[in-house]
Amino acid sequence: MSGVLHVLLHMVERDGPVTSETMATIMGSNPAAMRRTMAGLREAGLVRSEKGHGGGWTIERALSEITLRDIYASLDSPELFAMGKRTDAPGCLVEEAVNATLGSAFEEARTLLLDRFAAVTLAELSADFHGRMLARGNKDDQEIYHEV
């Protein structure tokens, strides 16, 4: 999620389409992985791709219309928490009690986090980036956001 948001904010700073190769360089990834990730965003209507010379990826909707929840969903809603419930001892009442408590806590946390994701837009993230850049005294310094 963090990497996708990173790429999208770099795209916002570009005047035209961004190639998978450029995104991969920015993220220290590879172009094929970037295309797979971007394909999910395209299917969700968040980005579009143009083939050929001068082609690449662009953001399809207004930044104020794209929430973190939209992006999360476009990534097939990955697990939010690395911690899980133990399933080593089926039928163990202690394990059942622990799993029930953890399960409800994880679900509450998941709901809270997804609600927060729904309340944050790419426009807000972009504004935060620009505020941080200005606070450092950089008006249009490409170095600050490590574009190539």
TrEMBL record:
A GO CC term assigned to this protein in UniProt: cytosol
TM region(s), chain numbering: none
Record InterPro entries: Tscrpt_reg_Rrf2 (IPR000944), WH-like_DNA-bd_sf (IPR036388), WH_DNA-bd_sf (IPR036390)
SUPFAM superfamilies: Winged helix' DNA-binding domain
UniProt GO MF annotations: DNA-binding transcription factor activity
Pfam annotation, one family: Rrf2
Superkingdom of source: Bacteria
Protein name per the record: BadM/Rrf2 family transcriptional regulator
UniProt lineage: Bacteria, Pseudomonadati, Pseudomonadota, Alphaproteobacteria, Sphingomonadales
